[in-house]
Amino acid sequence: MSELGTSTNEKYRKISNDLQHLTIDFLYKDLPHPPSGYLALPPFSETPSAQAPTSYTKGSYVNYAYRSADGSFYNPLIPSMGQAGTPYARSVPGTLQTNLKNLPDPGLIFDMLLKRPTKADGSGEEEDGFTPHPGGVSSLFFALADLIIHSIFNTNSQNPTINNASSYLDLSVLYGSSEREVQSVRKKDVKGRPDGTGRLYEDVFADGRLLLMPPAVCALLVVFSRNHNFIAQRIIDINEWGTYKDPELLKAQIDNASLDEERQNAARALQAQDDEIFHRSRLVNCGFFMKVILGDYVGAILGLARDGSSWRLDPLMEMRRLSHEFAPRGEGNVVSIEFNLLYRWHATLSRQDKQWTEKMFHDTLQQDGLNVQFSQLQPSQFFMAAGKALGQNKDVRTWTFDGLKRDTNGRFRDADIAKILQDSTSYRAGAFRARGIPEVLRVIEILGIEQARGWGACSLNEFRKFIGLKPYKSFKEWNSDDSVARAAEVLYKDIDNLELHVGMQAEQAKVPGPGAGLCPGYTISRSILADAVCLTRGDRFLTVDFTPFNLTTWGFADCQYPTAPDGSFGGMLTKLLFRHFPAYYPARSAYAHFPFLDPVYMEKELRNRGTADQYIWARPRPPVGVQVGEVSVIDSYDAVTKILSAPQDWKADYDLKLGTVVAGLKNPKLPDMTLINKLLRDSSDKWASSFVRETQNLLKTKCIAHAGSRTDVKFVDIVSDVINVLPVRWICQELAGLELGKEYPESKYITELHNVCRYVFLDWDPIYDWQLRDSSTTFYREFIKDVKVHLETESGFISNTLSHFKKPFAERPAFLEELHKQGHERRADELATALFCAVVPTAAHWAQDVAHIVNYYIEAGRVEERAELVALVKTGKIAGRALDLIKDALVADPAVFAAQRTAQRGTSMTRRDGSNLAAGETVFLNIIEANNLNRRIAPTTRLASILLENMDTCYPLNSLKRSLL
Ligand code: HEM
């Protein structure tokens, strides 16, 4: 299905889609909806706790869907379905009455069937008894699995029929499962009032159970915690509905109100704003969680990233069955005890996480005065010690893990979190297998076995029948390892007696192959997909309410999979790692692209496929000079000017980027552009008049008349339909002879020019690096293919190269004739590459500059300057005053609003904290801020112009710009 899904043939993709519909419908129907059995009665008599968020003021209610704290009202008609604090569902009635007294002792079961050896004594183990995961899965994968299971399972220790977590992937590990817990993470000001920004406190999360898990689990959760605040900030900044106010203003209104009613209204407005941004941000953040689960996690389960397939199972899609019935979505979910038992993946603990857990258990027990061997530890002793350890500190803002320290704002250091995450990617998880669980978790397994018995869970064979698998006939069929099968037989006598939990965890594991990446036992592997489908498809906030209306337009777009290949084969965690730790996860790092796979394993896989060189496999080195993770921002006018005017000391990476586009990652280099630049300069007068002619042409064809009585008024989208098109036409028609037409319209060129420009000049965000490079390289290849044909045909060589247009070429432009004449000694592809480098990267900047100038002078307050500029341009007097006016506009609103430079040697320039910038350190120059802070300086000498001039010397801001100025 995955191969069909990524085929270029539309027919195959349609077949894949139809098959996917059937599969999802099938998996969704694996479990009854609503569940047919519960461990106890759901509390229908209790009023579910969801309350509508407060409105701003009467009459201006902002209507949006939001997740309740406890998961109530996910199904509005059965509000308690899947609510935290309600009973587990039971999918399979256990009909085989085994007298509990006849069941083997849980400790003995652990020792004979589940315990990981401490030295190699069977197949697959390394010296210390550890069996590495055969599919290369990393420990970080299981950190996410840990977040998933803690989001949906929290068995109440006093009443084990009750699940204290909701049955939804609502990130309750971050936000909490009750209103009290949610309030504990939401940010308040010093007076205890809502923050007004919908933010959480820095780096907090609500579920204390995770503090007893390996540190990567908490570190990964911190990523989602930061992502919430990132989203909230964007939502308030964009202010899509125009309803948000500056929280400080709202607080001042409360403080300054003279009447009680006035104060209450202001307080309500603050609360409502905080609620709305919080809830919308949570929806977006859960959207990310869901995409990471379906993209990275299910992708790893099916081995898709390993196999280089970006096809994904999409259980959320709207679809009809063959009978035309709607396949239901968003109707709610209740997790079952069978899935609780299925997910206890304790065998997968990596070597390093095992050591960490041993130390954590040891310390926790010692704090309680206990010095017991793990093999002797009793459940009651464990509970007592763990309860005390977790109960000590109620304030989530002070929680810490792995000995990390918070700064004065409560934040952990980026370096610390990134280190834990990268360690975890490099740790190979343990294999699923019988006898794979470290002894330190013996007590947990005993609890698990007892728990399953207390729930009256069904047997392994009953569960297999339920999901449509053949029941096992013998122990040997269940696990072909003789010694395991015999031990199980001694303990259970008959295969039908084999308990579900033990049976699933000690079942023979699958081997890696197509569709098999996780490689648990077959029963787990078959059921886990049904669970993923039911959990996501049953959640209305991931399906019917997953809309731009609820998430905001930006938020909805932000949590979508990338539409172009991004090097991660459909993974989304990459985006979060790049976003929150850009200094620690550089572009192309395998640690960012495949965080769930051991890089050593994955490199070998990709070497076999010939694509390994596109990635950086070495573990990222901490960035030079950076103290807390950010790049140093320089925003003083003097410092920015100094840096820009010393390119030998402060290197830009423009050449490297463009060299990569035209010569590849391995050996990026630029061609000799002397001839091209000379020819372009020789014709600069001609270009100026061709731009004027084309502008008039476009205005004539793109303007539409006013539909009413105003016959003197016409409309035109000056940016999209005129300014952006100008460089496209110039490059295609005047210079390169590229066909413009239906199959390759101007709009497509505009996007491609924009992407090249972004990659070469503005590629600061590693999130977009891969896509921009890929798009730029593809465009370059198509560009030179066509230009080369022109140049070669000119020289009498009839090329059989097919261009992407698959149409006859446009007429050969005079420029290429001249290029061929003067450059006949050089190879056609070299000349074509030089032309690409000279005109393509800055074309979008040119258009943006012009758009900014028009935008600046279109404002009502600048009528006089506009008239002056128009008059000067008409007389052809560009130098002097006209140029100053143009620069004024670009100073106020520069297209190149920032730049990055790397110090080539140690400098006397300082960071914000007063320390010196070091050699190799990268700085971010904030042009806009530098100008703002220096209003006294005469506009024309400010940075827009300085940057433009500098770009001319560092890298040609091209003849296009000259043609305008
Ligand atoms: C070092 C790592 C881990 C430790 C220390 C740990 C510890 C625990 C503990 C203390 C319990 C509660 C036992 C009880 O009350 O019956 C538990 C339950 C559980 N564990 Fe683990 N675990 C670890 C890793 C994992 C992983 C990687 C998974 C699977 C992704 C997992 C899945 C579960 C599940 C599903 C439960 C039942 C939860 C419930 O009923 O509330 N655990 N584990």
From TrEMBL:
GO molecular-function term, one example from the UniProt record: heme binding
PROSITE patterns hit by this protein: PEROXIDASE_3
BP GO terms, sorted: fatty acid metabolic process; response to oxidative stress
InterPro entries per record: Haem_peroxidase_animal, Haem_peroxidase_sf, Haem_peroxidase_sf_animal, Oxylipin_biosynth_metab, Ppo-like_N
Organism superkingdom: Eukaryota
Key words of the record: Dioxygenase, Heme, Iron, Metal-binding, Oxidoreductase, Peroxidase
Residues at which heme b binds: H346
Keyword Amino-acid biosynthesis (UniProt): no
The protein's name in its UniProt record: Heme peroxidase
Organism listed in the record: Lentinula guzmanii
